[in-house]
Amino acid sequence: MNMQENETPLLLPIRDISRLTGVNTVTLRAWERRYGLLTPTRTEKGHRLYSQEDVERVKAIQAWLVRGLAISKVKGILANETPVDAEAGIDSVWVDYTARIETALNQLNRAALTGLLNELISLYPAELIADQLLANVLEQLQIKPEYGTKTKLAFLHSVVLEHFYFGHYRQRQTAKGKRLLVVNLNPDDGDILPLILNYSLLVNTFQAEYIGYLPLPELVFAVEQLGAEGLVLYGDSAMHLTNLSHQVLDWQQILAIPVFLAGKITRMFIGDHDAIEHLLAGDSLQGILATLIREFTERNTLDRDL
Q1: Which of 14, 50, 78, 163 is the most exposed place for a label (fewest CB within 10 A)?
Q2: Where does the pLDDT of residue 90 fall: very low under 50, low under 70, confident under 90, or very high at 90 and above?
Q3: What is the overall mean pLDDT for the chain?
Q4: CATH number of domain containing 239
Q5: Residue 68 in contact with residue 84, Cβ under 8 Å?
């Protein structure tokens, strides 16, 4: 008898498919209930179970969302029922969300902005929201000298940080992976993007800790006391690159843990600082997250093989 024919396909609980894909469980349930994108099997007690095909389907959904396709259109695309012009009009969903967030900011409307964040986080991974929407809104606010812009920026920080700090508490309950410390290199950059990166790391089961900006001499103390197994230095604005590159290499030796640079600052190192190029995690939150997951997965594999 062929044993392979009788093998039961491996089925995964929702927490495992969330860990494998980086999509939080609230979003997975919304994709199922509201849009029929997933059809997990159920245990006798009603718990969802997902197949490897479901894992691949979630990844396909993510790929379309990154391109800007509205979540309501994804099911037809995956079923080949709706033709899509790959080049034209596909990113309109983020244009619409940008207009809505700008309206809420112009009115300083907390209820509207909170409702929009709740809608977004129920449909899209946090790192995708950051890259496609919040990073652009932040950039526009930071470069505009208009009256009221600083108030809008402060208001946006207040609402978004409140939302994601609450999300941190929920995700921290199930995070059992490597301990990572995320630090902001420049207090003027604000906390929104590195905090969302930390949230996404928690969703992916890292025991991630974001403590904002730290003076560089304090890093050793923070790493030692928190028992960090990796350090992520996030920055979006220019710094003295030569000094920073030397410091990163020094910390890697002193701390004896992986140290990564992340954020737009990494663009300034590519091609001219070969010594630390392998420590550059990327400039987008999606890219940073993918790099960290890959790096620590490979390290876990090496540790098991030793």
Answers
A1: 78
A2: low
A3: 86
A4: 3.40.50.280
A5: no
Number of DSSP helices (H) and strands (E) in the chain, helices first: 14, 8
Do residues 181 and 260 touch, judged by C-beta distance below 8 A? Answer: no
54 and 141 belong to one structural domain: no
Question: DSSP character for 140?
Answer: H
Determine the Cα–Cα distance for residues 62 and 57; give it in Å rounded to an integer: 9
- Please list, in sequence order, all residues whose beta carbon lies within 8 angstroms of the beta carbon of residue 299, skipping any fewer than 6 positions away: 258
Do 183 and 160 share a structural domain? Answer: no
Instruction: Tell me the sheet residues that pair with 209.
Output: 181
Residue where a domain terminates, one of 139, 166, 193:
166
Taking the C-alpha atoms of residue 133 and residue 179, their distance in angstroms, rounded to an integer, is 28
Question: Among 75-89, 150-164, 240-254, 276-290, which is the least confidently predicted range?
Answer: 75-89
Domain tally, the chain? 3
* Residue showing tokens 């103390």: 221
CA dihedral 14, 162, 206, 36 (to 10 degrees): 20
Residues 30, 40 contacting (CB under 8 angstroms): no
Residue 6 confidence (pLDDT) above 60: no
Read off the pLDDT of residues 119-175 as tens digits, 9 standing for 90 and up: 999 888 899 999 999 999 999 998 888 899 999 999 999 999 999 998 898 889 888
Overall pTM > 0.85: no
CATH value at residue 26: 1.10.1660.10
One-letter amino acid for residue 76 of the chain: G
Domain range for residue 109?
Answer: 92-166
Position 298 scores a pLDDT of 72
Identity of the highest mean pLDDT range in 21-25, 108-112, 182-186, 298-302: 108-112
The C-alpha torsion from 264 through 71 and 34 to 50, rounded to 10°, is -70
Structure tokens at 59: 């990844």
Q: Are residues 266 and 203 in the same domain?
A: yes
Res 123: pLDDT? 87
Q: Is residue 86 part of a domain?
A: no
